[in-house]
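2 proteins. here.
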Amino acid sequence: MSQSAYDFRRIENTSGRQRSEQLYRASASAFVSLSRPAKVDIQQFEELSDALYDRVSDEAKRYVAAVLAPNGCAPLAVIRRLANEPASISAPLLAQSPLLTPAALVALIARHGDGHARVIAKRSDLDPAIRALVALLIRDGSGVTAEPAEAPEQQRIKASAEDVRTALRATMAANAEPAVLPANPSPSREALLARLMPTALSGNPRFFRTALADALDLPFAATESIVEENGATNLLFALRLLALPVAEAFMIAAALNPGRYLTPHTISHFAKRYEALTLDAARDWFDGFRAASFDALAEAEAAMPVLHQPPANEALPRFRRAG
């Protein structure tokens, strides 16, 4: 008797949560036993998994993650949902699943931080650029954490990603230099910075430009030369001014310029440039950039044609009624 058949036999004598647990396990075992699952098989397994997911234990999810890890035909929605669980559950998928593309892997690190990053680093087929970036994130024992620091003096500005494409979530060791922002920022200021990451990952540069304009108190038009600049120097200065950790700054830059940072060399070059840039230099750049931006805005407004408005006592033209 196969393992899947044995599991289904056991279900007949159970009820309630235990039944859900065993059905969840058995359905996964049955699915992976199919050498060539048809579309209907994939759909049925996905629907059953979705229906049972919230009723099963972490142990059951861990079992299914291990069973599905080497499978290349599993429903992508099932794989993604399990991969977003804590690393203690999702580790087999993170380390083995052929369905997790490089973009999906960096998205997972963006959401979950150090725990996922360390497991993903064990993949034998990991893209060299991702491997180099993971090494950057965890170097010197510094951890990437998805949880906010508890002590006020240890708080760092972090951004959470709701949706991701080609970026990587990270934080680096605390910067020795004083941050531009207050050590314990107000919720509103924290919220402004928290918008940078998800908007950068959204795939729409205008969303990020809006968030950046709010964070830097710049006109929206001024952010075009920061985000869309070919050399990315202005973006480097802007992110440094906000005192973002180097890996978080890289994550945003890579999301906005996915074709620029494809090798370990380009990743390392970005990190070295960013870490060499002082906050004083970033402030000097910003003072000049902001002044020039407002001057350009004033000139543009002055060049706009002035519409003629009739004096207050001037009679408005009368229109003949039709008909």
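next one coming up
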Amino acid sequence: MATFVLTARHDIDRLGGLHIDRGQQYTININMMGITPYNLFNNSRCRDALIQQFRMNGIDVPSSDTGIYSKGTWDIKML
């Protein structure tokens, strides 16, 4: 299992009251082999797991929201 810490690069506001402060961190666990910080958001195999992990952290937005589900939005560290 791969564990990542995602840190918001900037403030994020979405409809429905979702607000993420710049610097806010989330721990994401992906139960697949071969997932790295470089392919976390670009790997179709882990997309559902990534969406589920975001929901567990209180981020419930459509999977089409590229402002959330984008490598450019987050600083990504693998633990």
